[in-house]
Amino acid sequence: MLLKSFLPFAAFVATALAMPAAEIFERAIGSSCSGTEGSGTCQLTTNCASGFQITGACPNDPSNVKCCIKKTCSVSGVGSGNCINTSNSCSGGSFYSGACPGDSTVKCC
Fold it and tell me: Which superkingdom does the taxonomy of this entry point to (predicted)?
């Protein structure tokens, strides 16, 4: 009888040990993350002004922590800049489409 009550616990432990620690626990701010758009670090959404954010690459974290990817971009005849979310300001410049990975909210500044 004791063995039967121990089996669910043993199965849980075996499953937990087989998972990477990052999938069991939250990732820390600054932990590596990646998506099809590139690699970055898990950051508070308020701390990614010079990059762009992707959702789902920092699993088990609160909604205000996302993967922040910093990439440079180049626009022919204009110059180079950084790929940022359009919700951030493009101080002293303009947004240009087509030079950055990600959805339509990520543009070259």
Answer: Eukaryota
